[in-house]
Structures are given as C-alpha cells and as structure tokens.
Amino acid sequence: MNGLSTVLIVVGLFLLGGIISFVKQKMPRGLIVLLSLSAAFCLVAGVMRLQVWS
Question: Do the domain assignments include residue 41?
C-alpha cells in the first residue's frame, strides 16, 4: 500500500463522514450528491491504486 492510495482512501472516508453529517443537518440535496460522488471517486481511485489485482 503506497502513500497516494492511502491518502485517497482516507480522504474518501472523510468525505463519507461529511455526507452523514450533511444529511443529519438537512443540507441541500445537490450538495450531498456532489459530496457522494467525490467520496466514491476517491475510494475507487484509492482501491484501484492498491494493485492487488496485478
């Protein structure tokens, strides 16, 4: 596990926590969707950089 994949996974998990917080605060739906997409992209990019499948 290299540094960049670790950073991407940690940022994705941080954004996931932000989603939960924003839903509890009843923030606008568009903001939650944007945050969800960015969290998903960070997590997928971090997992794909792990190079487990090669």
Answer: yes
Q: Which residues contact 23 (CB under 8 A, 6 or more apart)?
A: 32
Give the residue carrying structure tokens 């932000």.
18
Quote the number of domains for the chain: 1
State whether residue 54 is helix, strand or coil: coil
N-term to C-term CA, the chain: 13
Position 24 pLDDT exceeds 70? yes
What is the domain range of residue 18? 3-48
How many Cβ atoms sit within 10 Å of the Cβ of residue 9?
A: 19
Residue 1's pLDDT band, with cuts at 50, 70 and 90, is: low
- 53 found inside a domain: no
